[in-house]
Amino acid sequence: MAGPRPLPRRILRLAASIAVAFACLPTPVSGIRKDIGFIEPIMCRSTVQGRHLISDDNGYVCSALSINPWSHCCPTMGDRFSCQGCKHDLQCCNSYEYCVSCCLNPSKTKKEDVLKLKVAKPVTAGTYTNVFDFCTGRCRHSSASVVHENAYASDFHHCFSVQQNSSGSTEAISVAKLLGINVVVGRPGESCSLVCKVRGQSCVPSRLSVLNKCEILQKYMRCKSGCFRSLGPDQPAEVVVEAPTSLRIKYAET
User: Which GO terms describe its biological process (predicted)?
Assistant: First the structure.
């Protein structure tokens, strides 16, 4: 039986040329990227109490109509950590949303301090898990911001001070703020300016809020019947012995 016929030389030369051409081509490169993934959408937590303003957890304040409906984030064009309408010495604001924004500023609220605080006073209460929860909770109205249970003690009734819920005593902090201040006790009805002027001194109104605490007043006044924490122009107050019986606080006997 006859074997296969050899290929013509022309065909062999053509095959050799094709082999050389393929050998000169670069190494094939895969066109599929394996390091790419889906970009996670940026989502924000935001306040929902206000009718006109909203604050997000990045510290921005915006109108309710300008917030992103998908991410719930405010536009980043405005001021971040804005303290508009706030009193820095009291850490209180006249707007809930700006109170939250101001509170989120790391220079005003330390995360390590917040995570140690309890959400409420009971022993079983848990602690805050993040700064945003602390700010949104602390800036809400509380019994400490009202007087006579039907009126605000001040227009600046949204406060975020860490010391309000701290387990430590605030007496040392108050004493430190009174360094260099000469405390003078006036007569009933006398103003701070009048009492200080008679003695050749000047009144320092910014320190009155520090003075109006039972632990401080008891050092300069008798308070024999006890000092009671409250709010108002005449608070804290002492129940004096000569007070009418109908106005005295009645205690339940056990």
Answer: positive regulation of SREBP signaling pathway
